[in-house]
Design brief:
alpha+beta, phage-related protein like fold, about 300 residues, six-stranded mixed beta sheet, disordered N terminus
Length: about 300
């Protein structure tokens, strides 16, 4: 592998490894439909058929069905992460460089996965924990209208109510994302002294629940900036939410200066360090209003 420099791209084999690991750590990536997107954005269309399908007799007249087209443009947002490492990287063997990049990739994947969820669920900049003007109003807490009041003692009933709310509104439930505190409450529910949901005991994180895909993730409740603390999301993740990434992931090895603006850490060259920085472009869009949120009441 040639020495990385400014303007180069992340090695392709590590890009694939990165996205696989993101899918394993992110609720959005696990439950929603994913596809590559262009740097300039991508328009997705949803078609709502206004009437039922028509049966037409031989030589019979055909009537108007009607259709509503609702385009949603998915615009990629830049997420960046960088870290200082020893300048050994510049002089190491090819195998050692790959080892360092793999270690960087492992950590980067976890941060990308968490960042995707925090931005798409709560609209925050993951590093600051505050609302992001770049994300704007393109996040689930802002889009969602159906809210079910959380009660730890009846968490299972809350979940059932959320599913029923989506389905009553002609939506479909294809996935569930729950906070660990919610599954902890589920693990404590008993009937006549018998635990009803043993799959959640001792920190259990099953991949499905009552036949539906499930992800248990701290990102559901972390950094929620709304007045309704989040405990769970239920809805049509498969069809109502799409996310994607730009295949090209810029990667830099910076040898000089203070690229992280850390005055205490000082100049890279003066401390025998280099700075590894990578950027990934992620985008998401909500195509259907088919979600319910389990949360505390607004204060």
């Amino acid at each position: 592998m040639a020495t990385q420099s400014m303007g180069t791209m992340f090695p392709q084999e590590l890009v694939e490894d990165l996205l696989n690991k993101v899918t394993g750590k992110s609720s959005i990536a696990k439950l929603a439909t994913q596809k590559p997107i262009a740097f300039t954005g991508q328009k997705e269309f949803t078609f709502s058929m206004d009437n039922e399908i028509d049966i037409v007799a031989e030589n019979g007249a055909k009537s108007h069905g009607g259709i509503t087209v609702a385009p949603v443009t998915i615009i990629p947002i830049k997420f960046e992460y960088g870290a200082r490492v020893s300048n050994e990287f510049m002089y190491a063997s090819e195998e050692r460089k790959i080892d360092i990049l793999k270690a960087f990739n492992d950590g980067f994947a976890k941060k990308v996965a968490r960042g995707l969820d925090l931005a798409a669920f709560h609209g925050v900049n993951p590093r600051t924990g505050k609302a992001s003007t770049v994300v704007g109003e393109n996040y689930l807490d802002k889009k969602i209208e159906t809210k079910i009041t959380y009660n730890a003692d009846t968490a299972d009933e809350n979940l059932d109510a959320a599913v029923q709310a989506v389905e009553t509104a002609d939506g479909e439930v294809t996935g569930i994302a729950l906070a660990p505190s919610f599954t902890s409450a589920m693990s404590k529910i008993k009937v006549n002294g018998v635990v009803q949901y043993p799959e959640f005991r001792f920190g259990g994180k099953p991949d499905s629940f009552v036949g539906m895909p499930l992800d248990v993730n701290k990102t559901v409740s972390d950094m929620d900036v709304t007045d309704n603390a989040s405990y769970g999301y239920v809805g049509d993740f498969a069809n109502g939410l799409k996310w994607g990434y730009a295949k090209e992931i810029p990667f830099e090895v910076i040898e000089y200066g203070c690229p992280d603006n850390d005055t205490e850490a000082g100049d890279l060259k003066g401390h025998n360090q280099v700075y590894l920085r990578s950027e990934v472009y992620l985008g998401w869009g909500f195509l259907l209003d088919s979600f319910a949120k389990i949360c505390t009441p607004a204060e």
